[in-house]
């Protein structure tokens, strides 16, 4: 989906700017800065999921499925981070959640 790709490119650019800013303004190592970004993403998931579990929250109809959602997030990170050899070693396909939970 072209729209999906454009969104990916925009979010990637924003995260890369955040990463560069973190490296420039802290003594964090590259992996510490990336872990900080991953932690922030996880906490955003928690906030969004809570807003959809709240009866007075968002009414878009999405229902969080914590176990599958977190596996999907981890899988998205791993699939884009790993070289082919590492990806094969982890057999990422076995981590794909089935359906929409
Ligand atoms: Zn919603």
Could you please describe the fold and organization of this structure?
This protein has about 100 residues and is mainly α. The chain is about 70% helix and about 0% strand. It contains four helices and no strands. It has helices at about 1-25, 30-55, 65-80, 85-90. Helix 1 crosses helix 2. The longest helix is centred in the first third of the chain and has 24 residues, at about 1-25. The radius of gyration is 16 Å and the shape is globular. The chain starts with a helix and ends in an 11-residue tail after the last helix. About 0% of the residues are buried. The model has no long low-confidence stretch (mean pLDDT about 90). Zinc ion binds near residues 52, 58, 60 and 62.
List keywords for this structure.
101 residues, mainly alpha, 4 helices, 70% helix, globular, binds zinc ion
Task: Give me the secondary-structure topology.
Blueprint lengths: L1 H24 L4 H24 L12 H16 L2 H7 L11
Helix pairs in contact: 1-2
The chain binds zinc ion.
Quick rundown:
By secondary structure, the protein is an all-alpha fold. The protein contains four helices and no strands. α1 packs across α2.
Secondary structure: number of strands:
0
Q: Biggest sheet: strands, sense, closure?
A: none
Helix/strand/pairing class, anyone?
A: mainly alpha
Q: Helical residue percent?
A: over 70%
Q: Averaged pLDDT, please?
A: 89
Number of helices: 4
Please give the alpha-carbon distance between the first and last residues: 22 Å
Shape: globular
Q: What is the succession of H and E elements? A: HHHH
Strand content: under 5%
Q: Over all CA atoms, what is the radius of gyration?
A: 16 Å
């Amino acid at each position: 989906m072209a729209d999906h790709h454009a969104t990916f490119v925009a979010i990637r650019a924003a995260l890369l700017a955040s990463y560069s800013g973190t490296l420039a303004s802290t003594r964090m190592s590259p992996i510490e800065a990336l872990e900080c970004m991953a932690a922030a993403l996880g906490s955003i998931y928690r906030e969004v999921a809570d807003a959809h579990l709240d009866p007075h929250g968002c009414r878009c109809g999405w229902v969080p499925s914590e176990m599958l959602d977190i596996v999907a997030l981890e899988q998205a990170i791993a699939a884009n981070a790993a070289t082919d050899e590492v990806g094969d070693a982890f057999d990422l396909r076995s981590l794909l959640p089935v359906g929409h939970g």
